[in-house]
Amino acid sequence: MTLRRLGLFGGTFDPPHFGHVAALRAAARTHRFNRIEVTVAGDPYQKSVQGAVRPAPLRLAMAVVAFEGLDLVEVSDREIRRAGPSYTIDTVRELLEEADEVDLIIGADLASQLDRWHEAAALRSLVRVGVVPRPGGQSVMPSGWISYEIAMEPVDLSSTYIRDSHPNRANLRDFVPDGVIPLYEGFRG
What we know:
Elements: E1 3-11, H1 18-29, E2 35-40, H2 45-48, H3 56-67, E3 73-76, H4 78-81, H5 88-95, E4 99-107, H6 108-111, H7 120-126, E5 127-132, E6 147-149, H8 159-165, H9 169-172, H10 180-188
Parallel strand pairs: 1-2, 1-4, 2-3, 4-5, 5-6
Helix pairs in contact: 3-10, 5-7
């Protein structure tokens, strides 16, 4: 059975946090989607060149526990199973074999970068973009992209902040769902 409309929320999820959870809940509340797929990047080419990224199987396991039980949400390993860099355009093409429409769900901080994504012109012709607000600014959508805002209170949190602040177990509870903590701590030692 073909889905009418699918939301794609991709990322590195190193680690998945309460901001991601809030964005997924807000996206589900829009009633735009039959399903929201969280796709964990196997080789996040834009981030892996900047430094170490935790192994994809660990990031997938953290995403599964972080997002379990959220309405409409399914966590996928499709980009982990695919060899080479993880490109959103490849995932969208695969998903369009299952769905009539695919909308990207992204944070407002990424909107201005869309034209620099791999095969951006092709991607722009295939998707609409649901933009989740981020603290401290508005999204600047490049010309030609069809977009809409997903209403929610911005969450001032990022995976980079969590990694850079080296929180202890007690502090981690402020940033990530409880099930993520032993996985995250187990890897960093």
